[in-house]
Amino acid sequence: MENIAPNFVYPFPMLMAHSASPLKNNKWVVKSGMITYDLLAFDKARTWDASKKIPNHRTLSAREALSLQPNLKREDLTGASVFYDCVSIFPERLTLAFVKSALAWGARVSNYARVEEFLLSGRHRVTGVKVKDLLSGKDHEVHGSIVINCGGPWADLILGLARQEGIGEKLVRSEGIHIITKKELIRDSHVVGSMTAKGRHFFLIPWRGHTLIGTTDKKYTGNPDDYRVTKASILELIDEVNASFGDGSLCYEDVQYAYGGLRPLVEEQTAETYTSSRRYEIYDNATDGLDGLITVEGGKYTTSRNLAENTLNLVREKTGWAMGQSVSGRRYLQGSRIRDVEAFVTQAKRDHPDFAPDTMEYLARNYGTEYGKIVSLARQDRDLSEVVTHDGEILAEVVHAVRDEMALTLPDIVLRRTGIGTLGNPGGEVLEKVAHQAGHELGWNQDRVARELADTLSILRVPTD
């Protein structure tokens, strides 16, 4: 991911605080694991961008740890480990880069298309799907030699549509939430990890001048369509943070935004979903009477490209198609062909002195080699150069999201294409400007603009129940 998406995935130092108990958080127990990790990941310095090579871990005394992060909980602090992992600065745009890359290689994609039923030849051969366009209400049939069900937490429910006798909810799902606060909890120099008394980790991540805190790991039962973040879940996370980090002063009123999601668990579970792995499984549904259908469950960003490669290997086995070997691990994602990210960002600032440095910093990192399209829009219409976030985002991104990135709703724009809403509600004035600009592009009337604003505010509201 560092190599093929260099403007989205960055190595970052992680400071993990240690205490005498539980045993797995003992400084020397952890050090043995760190040494093993360094040996296994011996090639971590062989990155395409030399500035992104990852150094080995180091162990700190309690005093050294506190000098780096003064808000660590001093009680029982025995020291810390500093190791490197990667952070993704904008997961939604990273996902979009994969979609755009698929398009560049000939894929056809459609958003807001919900699978209603499977098309079958006889009782046991899947030949496609019927989907509903959720915006127009129209139904469409999509035919294929192989259908891949990668519905994540919905995978079992989707599979049930293909089985005429139906299927119950068999997946175990785990809820994870994050909260964002402006409260100064950590210095920007490190991601800070801490461990609860029950042995569960959480992390405090510096992000866009805020602190991103997560994640929880709790079993979720019920239909994933009904999932939402609750105030109770937020308070549980706050309690864990206060018990294990800082002076215990973080409170519900400090939360600027909260979001959550579900992940499917693909193994026999213990009572605590935190103990389960993030592995994935690929099923050939021909083994249970549905030839032509493959179901993929589990996975995460780190393993997603490899998961896709292995899934296509199964497609090749089933079809005999001469697809060749995968090249996706050796090709930049669309918009990410950047050999040296820091030099690229510096050059972007030099080349466009008529824009604020923080705007060019944001555009270069989050749009990569495609940032010029946004600069061009802003130069054609200077009103689109208006800055709408504290870190330099501009209105031209809204137009670009609609014209070039399939954005069709206000939440699409502020949460899934830009970062205008990813820190929480940016304020009524900003949202109205964005909504009216989007409405101009998409032909919305005033009623539609009002509905989009209401929907977006509902999403951005911190839960109160």
Verbal overview:
This protein has helices at residues 27-40, 62-68, 91-104, 155-162, 231-244, 301-319, 341-351, 357-367, 371-380, 396-404, 410-417, 428-442, 446-460; strands at 9-19, 58-60, 77-88, 113-121, 125-133, 139-143, 147-149, 172-181, 191-195, 201-207, 210-214, 218-220, 255-265, 280-284, 293-298. The protein has 465 residues and is of the alpha+beta class. The chain folds into 3 domains: 1-89, no CATH class; 92-171 and 277-330, FAD/NAD(P)-binding domain (3-Layer(bba) Sandwich), CATH 3.50.50; 341-460, Alpha-glycerophosphate oxidase, cap domain (Helicase, Ruva Protein, domain 3). Strands 1, 2, 3, 8, 9, 10, 11, 12 and 13 form a 9-stranded mixed beta sheet that branches. The chain has a 3-stranded antiparallel beta sheet with strand order 4-5-6, covered by helices on one side. A 3-stranded mixed beta sheet has the order 7-15-14, sandwiched between helices. β4 (113-121) and β5 (125-133) form a beta hairpin. It is globular.
Structure, briefly:
The chain has 465 residues and is α+β, with helices and mostly antiparallel strands. Helix content is 33%, strand content 22%. The protein has 13 helices and 15 strands.
CATH class of the largest domain: Alpha Beta
Mean pLDDT: 93
For the record, give the distance between the C-alpha atoms at the N and C termini, rounded to a whole number: 38 Å
Characterize the overall form: globular
Instruction: Provide the CATH topology of the largest domain.
Output: FAD/NAD(P)-binding domain
Please trace the helix and strand order, writing H or E for each element.
Answer: EHEHEHEEEEHEEEEEHEEEHHHHHHHH
